[in-house]
Amino acid sequence: MSESILRTEGLTKAFGGLIAVNNVNFTHATGKLHAVIGPNGAGKTTFFNVVSGFFAATSGRVIFQGRDIVGLKPHQISQLGIARTLQVKSVFGGLTVHDNVWIAAQSRTKFLHPFRPATSYRETARRVDQVLDEVGMRDHARELAGNLSYGDVALLEIAIALATDPKLVLLDEPVSGMSPTETERTVAIIKDLARRVNVILIEHDMEVVFGAADVITVMTQGMILCEGSPAEIAKDPRVQEAYLGAPEDEDEAHA
Ligand SMILES: Nc1ncnc2c1ncn2[C@@H]1O[C@H](COP(=O)(O)OP(=O)(O)OP(=O)(O)O)[C@@H](O)[C@H]1O
Ligand SMILES: [Mg+2]
């Protein structure tokens, strides 16, 4: 059996008395588009934050390509090949689309070629063009990121993540706030992407999840509730219960 690119063992993150991620044993289905779903506050983003080193784990291990990466800094984890996007979109609004991606690409190239600036420059330029093509943003290269539509900001964030040439990309609600057309376009891009890079996707849009994912992991209250194919998850009564039982959902229903 081939080793999964990412797995966690007993991964736990507590904020004081609140255990946001509770003893999670997660295995990425390598080569599959893997979605993580669950009600608000289930611990999905915290899980990404611990895997990517933004938060220190309270206990447990994160094994990436056979190596325990717990305790490494976010930039070290990024250099090893894990990139992530943020739930709250954040790009440099005063810079062009091209320059936003350039900065990310450069950080990776400097690491690879510390003493070869000319090679590094050409390599960076090539990568920027490649990832802008990949997310369909080449025509927007000279636009200020601050002038982009909401959907294009989200695509730019994916481009920034790809610019570091990652082996694994963690996408946190990439289509949230998008129009149906933007969502459709972004889902197509993510599906294409998942053919060449490992992708783990947190998403609330069930149409997207069930339409795009190969494997779904359901989290509730910091724990993995169940895992399976979209068909298996769709008919699992525990999943329906988990969503219907979430007080946030009730609030939204009455809002
Ligand atoms: N930095 C933090 N400090 C304290 N508590 C936090 C912090 N980040 C998250 N939490 C808490 O941890 C729990 C899990 O939050 P998290 O953001 O991981 O959930 P989520 O599944 O991503 O939810 P959503 O779907 O709403 O984005 C929540 O109770 C949240 O309030
Ligand atoms: Mg979240």
CATH class of the largest domain: Alpha Beta
* Bound small-molecule species: adenosine-5'-triphosphate, magnesium ion
Secondary-structure-based class equals: alpha/beta
Strand order within the widest sheet? 6-7-8-3-9-10
* Distance linking N and C termini: 49 Å
Please give the count of helices.
10
Give me the CATH architecture of the largest domain, please. Answer: 3-Layer(aba) Sandwich
Are there runs of 5+ residues with pLDDT below 50, and where?
A: 249-255
CATH-level-4 superfamily name of the largest domain: P-loop containing nucleotide triphosphate hydrolases
Indicate the multimeric state.
Answer: single chain
> Shape from CA axes?
globular
As a percent range, the share of strand residues is: 15-25%
* SSE string: EEEHEEHEHHHEHEHEEHHH
Number of strands: 10
CATH fold name of the largest domain: Rossmann fold
List keywords for this structure.
41% helix; globular; 255 residues; binds magnesium ion; Rossmann fold; disordered C terminus; 10 helices; alpha/beta; binds adenosine-5'-triphosphate
Describe the overall structure.
The chain is an alpha/beta fold and 255 residues long. The protein folds into two domains: 169 residues, Rossmann fold; 73 residues, no CATH class. Helix content is 41%, strand content 22%. A six-stranded mixed sheet has the order 6-7-8-3-9-10, with helices on both faces. Strands 2-1-4-5 form a four-stranded antiparallel sheet, covered by helices on one side. A hairpin with a 2-residue loop joins strand 9 and strand 10. The N and C termini lie far apart (49 Å). The C terminus is likely disordered. It binds adenosine-5'-triphosphate and magnesium ion. The site of adenosine-5'-triphosphate has 12 residues, from strand 2 and helix 1.
